[in-house]
Write a structure and sequence with these properties.
- By secondary structure, the chain is α/β, with parallel strands linked by helices.
- The chain has 2 domains: 193 residues, Rossmann fold, CATH 3.40.50; 153 residues, Glycogen Phosphorylase B (Rossmann fold).
- It is 46% helix and 13% strand.
- The strands form 2 sheets. It has a 7-stranded parallel sheet, with helices on both faces. It has a 6-stranded parallel sheet with strand order 10-9-8-11-12-13, sandwiched between helices.
Length: 379
Amino acid sequence: MRIAHVVGTRPNFMKVAPLMRALEGDDHIEQLLIHTGQHYDRRLSEDLFHDLELPTPDVNLQIGSGTHAEQTARAMMALEPAFELAQPDWVFLVGSTNSTLAAALVAAKMGTPLANIEAGLRSHDRSMPEEINRVLIDRISDALFTTEPSANENLRQEGIDPRQIHYVGNVMIDSLERYRSKASELDVTKMLGLDRGEYILVTLHRAHNVDSRERLADILAALGQMSAYHPVVFPMHPRTARNVKRFDLEGGLASLGVLGPTGYLEFLALMECAGAVITDSGSIQEETTVLGVPCITLRPNTERPITLAEGTNQLFNGDLGELADVALEAVTSERRPHRPELWDGRAAERIARIAREALANHRTRRGAWEREGAKVPTL
């Protein structure tokens, strides 16, 4: 069985690494890694392959940035000949990016079975491009692996056959557990002159927060207020950096500890030692839950409700003039690490076991069909 893994953005790499590792060593499974190049900054892409012990991609399509339509279309046009050449038996997808949607559409139209490794997550907010991607990808997937109970319920309500749904846990946490100690050895906080639990870590990249001059200016002003009490460390996403320059807001960075895009290990070390994290990322909500770090998500909703019900995450969509007070209170709150069910660092092992069982069943059926002289169908 030939499996093609498709990745395009930073969180995709963190999710596919443990899965590829779990499937290694099986003579009956061949793996291909296809990188669409949606993230092409060196620190957002190339360095992560080293940090996560990922092999060099078999294919790098280098689609780059653009509007949602441009990016999705370019990815589809590049993926179709890649799939035709590779002839995968399955396409494994992670995340809800434009690259993921493109791969799902191309594979489905070619009749190639799809496995979605992070299925069923819903913010129920169609204004988010990722939400549209999630719904469409799940609808055409053949195997849907879920991270939390709400995802199972979402899929059932949408009419997905329960036999296609596999509750396996969170591969993002697999990577966190594997590299947590290695990240701490870097001693990043010492190099930056930071004290554990005394700084606020910020990461922002979503259009809602960074594509409006007024909102981005208000966020920077709130971060400036926080910096009077606690250092604010701000690894800046390329999109955010471009907009800060475009909107002439560089002055709002004066009191902040601005960094370029950081490597996975460096960021993990910064996150674990932070007093609080302010973000609009989905995956960081999950990681801070396991690390026990207070997380403030600058969004009106989340597709990961378990981080609110059981974790350290809280949503903030109010007056940005009040954000500093919320953040300062979070820094002084009690750290309470929590592991939702099956967030144990072994989700990829469970996915690999299901894949191997499916392959074994297929080989058994194939042998019977061949003995009977019947045409052997594909998976």
